[in-house]
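Dear H.,

Thanks for agreeing to be a second pair of eyes. The structure we're designing against is below in token form, covering all 150 positions.
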């Protein structure tokens, strides 16, 4: 369950980073006074990805345990709005923190330590649905038959 919450945050950050555009081209000025420059999507650098992974577990307090009323399956779902969402300004007035979610943050940090290379590789391959790729295909982190903890 923690793996999915972690990878949702990573997917969001990577998508946001890929939407960023940078100016490229020559700094040389043409005879008419113009420059040949254009904006292209930036590729997340290893330094950016490292920073992203260092900060992502801090956001595990934005998740709460949700139990499906039909299947009784428990998952972590994000309940807090993201910075920039319309409701964020009002929401940030409230401070929500529970010691009950410290294990979630700890599990997040453990997953990053153990699977950092796989996470980088999936991002470099521009894999879609990072949660399925890492949590189900590249590890057994979401195999519910083997895990009862977070």
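And this is the sequence the design step returned. I haven't edited it by hand at all.
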């Amino acid at each position: 369950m923690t793996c999915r919450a972690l990878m949702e945050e990573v997917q969001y950050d990577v998508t946001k980073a890929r939407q960023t555009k940078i100016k490229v081209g020559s700094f040389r000025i043409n005879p008419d006074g113009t420059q040949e420059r254009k904006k292209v999507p930036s590729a997340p650098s290893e330094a950016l990805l490292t920073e992203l992974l260092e900060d992502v577990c801090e956001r595990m307090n934005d998740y709460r345990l949700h139990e499906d009323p039909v299947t009784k399956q428990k998952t972590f779902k994000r309940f807090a709005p993201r910075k920039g969402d319309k409701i964020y300004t009002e929401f940030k007035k409230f401070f929500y923190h529970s010691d009950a979610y410290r294990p979630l943050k700890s599990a997040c940090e453990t997953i990053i330590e153990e699977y950092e290379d796989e996470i980088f590789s999936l991002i470099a391959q521009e894999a879609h649905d990072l949660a399925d790729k890492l949590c189900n295909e590249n590890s057994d982190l979401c195999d519910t038959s083997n895990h009862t903890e977070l």
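Two observations from my side: Confidence is low (pLDDT under 50) at residues 144-150. The radius of gyration is 19 Å.

Warmly,
E.
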